[in-house]
Amino acid sequence: MKKSLHKPADTPLKVSIEDSQIVIRMGIDVNSFCALAKHGGPLAENLRINDPLQFAEDTISELIREDEIGASILTDALDKAIEEACNQGSTAIYELKRKEQEL
Prior knowledge:
By secondary structure, the chain is mostly helical. Helices cover 40% and strands 10% of the residues.
């Protein structure tokens, strides 16, 4: 197993496949860093995050909070990524022959 150069809280955003699952990983300090105005985040210049773990939990809540039709920020992002993979010509896609379509 490869040793990371980052402590877990400082892990940059990474998406990988592990045990046949898509895994999204990002350290909680990186999450807080991204929220700061000086890094393009939504927080005002005079605001800081004093509890990165709580802020990460709040971020996760927003990622998975469902609207009235069951969609969330995360499912919308995954839908968009799937659409783009199809539109950009994923080599994993093939066209069914006529006989296969009838099955």
